[in-house]
Amino acid sequence: MIDIAFQEGDVKSFETLLKEHMDKPLKHYERELAAVRTGRASVALLENIKVDVYGQMMSLRELATLAAPDARLLTVQPWDKSIIADIEKAIAASELGLTPANDGNIIRLQLPQMSASRRDELVKLLGKKTEEAKVGIRNVRKDFQNEVRDAEKKKLVSEDFCKKLNDVLQKITDQFIEKTDQMHKKKETEIGHI
Fold first, then answer.
1. What does the pLDDT look like over 111-127, one tens digit per residue?
2. Most CB atoms closer than 10 Å: which of 5, 70, 96, 178?
3. What would the pLDDT profile of 32-54 be if each residue is shown by its tens digit?
4. Overall fold of domain 44-110
5. Where are the alpha helices (DSSP H) in the chain?
6. How much is the average pLDDT of 139-162?
C-alpha cells in the first residue's frame, strides 16, 4: 500500500513519488544486469556472491579485494587468508561456471571464451530478468492506479484530476519500460559481440 497525500492539482508530488517507487525495480534490474557475464571480466560478477564465513553469510566484496587485471581474468585477494577455501567453494557453487585457482594468497578466475550456446543461454536469462523488471514497474503502476481510483471513490479528488493522474501514470510507466528495453538492448549487444 502506498501512502499518497492527494491534493487537487498537485501533479508534481504525485509524479515524484511515482518515479521514486518505479526507480526501485529499475535499480534492482541494473544490479542484476551487472551480474550477467558478457565475456569481459568485471568485478560486478563476483561482488554479491555469498560466502559462508565466521558463522554468517557475507558478500565477497566484504571479504576481499576484487580486481579485473585484464579482459578475461578476475582476481580475488582475501583480507583473511584462512578463508580462501570458503571463498573458492562459494565461487564454484555460483552460477558463473568458473573454476577458481589459488596460490595461497590470491584466487584467479580465468574467463573462458564464450560458446554460442552459452551466449544463447545468457540472452534467455537476460530476457527473463528484463520481464521481471517490467512486471515490477507494472506492479507499481497498478498500486498507484488503485490509490487514484480509491481517492476518486472517496471524493478526495475530482474525476478530471484522476484522469490527469492516470495520464501521468501511464506516461511515466512507458518511460520506465523504455529505459528497461534500452538497458536490455545494450546488454544483449555486449553478450553478442564477444
1. 877 778 878 888 888 89
2. 96
3. 887 776 666 778 888 888 999 98
4. Gyrase A; domain 2 (3.30.1360)
5. 11-34, 44-47, 84-93, 116-153, 159-192
6. 91
